[in-house]
């Protein structure tokens, strides 16, 4: 009974942690809905008055971006802002032939009178954080706008964002990501679904009540003095954006999130690219929890509620580990439930935690409705999308849990960029992309084994006990089977 007891305890703790996270999401939903009643009374620069126009430096950190570099530079060249108050830095860490093609395109743009510089480094020390830090040393702007290579801001983007820096306490203005290839495939749809939840429910829900949010690495602006005051960019985590965001807010800098300003970008279209991005984000989140835990808890500048939301924010990625634990232990728990009749009351109580899924379902519906609209037809579509999203998210749980554990254990790894494709239609061929490595990760094998394991879980529903089976966990095991199956077969097809 010792093994069974340990299993029950670990399973229960993981379920409780997921439920606490769900309650935090529910609180963010209430914040999000109440924010719609608030008026934006922030002071703003009058950009029609030349004396109020701040100097802006746009930084474009890039690394081997053959397929999107021309698109990026052509788009940035269209930015509508006074040329005498605008500087563009192309922070190019590339090691391939794009260095030369980028140089030529920049020289062509320079003939239009735009102040654009091509800045290269002899090494990639600090990766993206190192490039941003070096560029900052010579930046002319008081305001620093940052765009990754796959982002396409509209020409009037600066005019919608820069005015908020009139409030001298504002350190960051962050905009909402859009998705130019949202409908490319199931993979892009579920990525968009997850990001939309973050950029509506979470960012607005936290920001509207003064809780900590994060600069999302791109599609936002920093006050230069804020970066310096917070300790500048540091490359000791894989999510340098989250790191600097927390250090700045612990110094009492305010962040302004603009849900109504969308910055379009490209989502990864191949599962190997999505995996590398997910790994970096989730490991970086765990690294930052490790780095920021003591600073957040001991800070005298923030409320207890902001501390709780901050810690849960930093533990976002750790939820994948709890989901994986619950999934793996759910099959032994199925057998324990039907073997030990005296534990039935415990299992009745634990069934309450299905509320976590119901809470997520409600929260994400408001996000979905905000983007696609309400109505019965859209609600039916949402139900299907929610369960597809949940299944595939659980299918990523092993991969992301490994990232989380590495982050908490302090294991260092290289910053792996996410390959870009510049494709809009599914029939377009991505297989010749030179940045895709034709190797198979060992993780994929274990994902295939987990698919079979949860297939066994579905089979177990028919044979456990002496009452004709137990189908309470069958939907959960079906979603896990489908999720791990999707990730496994897609990974094999794209040669992760």
- Specify the CATH homologous superfamily of the largest domain: Spore Coat Polysaccharide Biosynthesis Protein SpsA, Chain A
Q: What gross morphology would you assign?
A: globular
- Which CATH architecture of the largest domain would you pick? Alpha-Beta Complex
CATH class of the largest domain: Alpha Beta
- Annotation field: number of helices: 17
How much is the radius of gyration in Å?
24 Å
The strand count comes to 7
- Mean pLDDT, to the nearest integer, reads 93
Percent of sequence in beta strands: 5-15%
Helix content: 40-55%
Residue windows where pLDDT falls under 50 for at least 5 positions? none
The topology string of helices and strands comes to HEHEHEHEHEHEHHEHHHHHHHHH
Question: Widest sheet: strand order?
Answer: 3-2-1-4-6-5-7
Protein described:
The protein is an alpha/beta fold. It folds into 2 domains: 2-32 and 317-493, no CATH class; 50-197 and 213-304, Spore Coat Polysaccharide Biosynthesis Protein SpsA, Chain A (Alpha-Beta Complex), CATH 3.90.550. Helices cover 55% and strands 10% of the residues. The protein is built from 17 helices and 7 strands. Strands 3-2-1-4-6-5-7 form a 7-stranded mixed β-sheet, with helices on both faces. The longest helix has 34 residues, at 2-35. The two termini are 42 Å apart.
């Amino acid at each position: 009974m010792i093994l069974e007891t340990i299993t029950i305890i670990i399973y229960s703790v993981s379920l409780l942690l997921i439920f606490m996270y769900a309650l935090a999401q529910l609180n963010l939903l209430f914040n999000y809905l109440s924010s719609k009643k608030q008026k934006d009374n922030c002071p703003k620069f009058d950009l029609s008055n030349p004396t109020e126009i701040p100097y802006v430096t746009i930084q474009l950190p890039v690394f081997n971006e053959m397929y999107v570099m021309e698109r990026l530079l052509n788009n940035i060249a269209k930015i509508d802002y006074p040329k005498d108050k605008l500087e563009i830095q192309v922070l190019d860490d590339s090691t391939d032939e794009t260095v030369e093609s980028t140089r030529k395109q920049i020289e062509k743009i320079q003939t239009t009178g735009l102040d654009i510089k091509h800045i290269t480094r002899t090494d990639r020390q600090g990766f993206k954080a190192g490039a941003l830090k070096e560029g900052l040393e010579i930046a002319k702007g008081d305001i620093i706008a940052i765009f990754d290579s796959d982002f396409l801001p509209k020409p009037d983007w600066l005019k919608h964002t820069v005015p908020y820096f009139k409030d001298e306490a504002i350190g960051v203005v962050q905009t909402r990501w859009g998705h130019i290839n949202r409908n490319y495939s199931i993979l892009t749809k579920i990525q968009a679904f997850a990001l939309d939840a973050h950029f509506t429910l979470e960012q607005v829900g936290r920001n509207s009540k003064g809780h900590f949010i994060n600069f999302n690495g791109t599609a936002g602006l920093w006050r230069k003095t804020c970066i310096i005051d917070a300790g500048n960019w540091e490359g000791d985590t894989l999510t340098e954006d989250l790191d600097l965001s927390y250090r700045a807010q612990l110094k009492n800098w305010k962040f302004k999130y603009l849900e109504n300003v969308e910055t379009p970008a490209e989502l990864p279209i191949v599962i190997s690219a999505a995996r590398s991005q997910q790994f970096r984000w989730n490991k970086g989140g765990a690294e930052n929890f490790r780095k920021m835990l003591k600073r957040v808890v001991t800070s005298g500048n923030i409320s207890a509620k902001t501390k709780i939301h901050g810690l849960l924010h930093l533990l976002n990625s750790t939820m994948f580990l709890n989901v994986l634990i619950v999934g793996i232990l759910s099959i032994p728990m199925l057998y324990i439930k039907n073997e030990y009749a005296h534990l039935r009351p415990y299992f009745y109580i634990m069934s309450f935690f299905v509320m976590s899924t119901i809470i997520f379902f409600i929260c994400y519906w408001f996000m979905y409705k905000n983007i696609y609209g309400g109505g019965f037809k859209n609600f039916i579509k949402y139900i299907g999308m929610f369960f597809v999203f949940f299944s595939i998210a659980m299918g990523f749980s092993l991969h992301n849990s490994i990232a989380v554990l590495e982050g908490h254990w302090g294991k260092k790894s290289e910053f792996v960029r996410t390959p870009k494709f510049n494709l809009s239609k599914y029939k377009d061929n991505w297989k010749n992309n030179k940045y895709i490595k034709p190797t198979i990760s060992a993780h994929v094998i274990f994902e295939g084994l987990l698919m079979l394991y949860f297939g066994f879980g579905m089979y177990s529903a028919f044979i456990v006990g002496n009452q004709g089976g137990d189908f309470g966990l069958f939907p959960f095991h079906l979603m896990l089977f489908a999720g791990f199956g999707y990730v496994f077969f897609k990974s094999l097809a794209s040669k992760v």
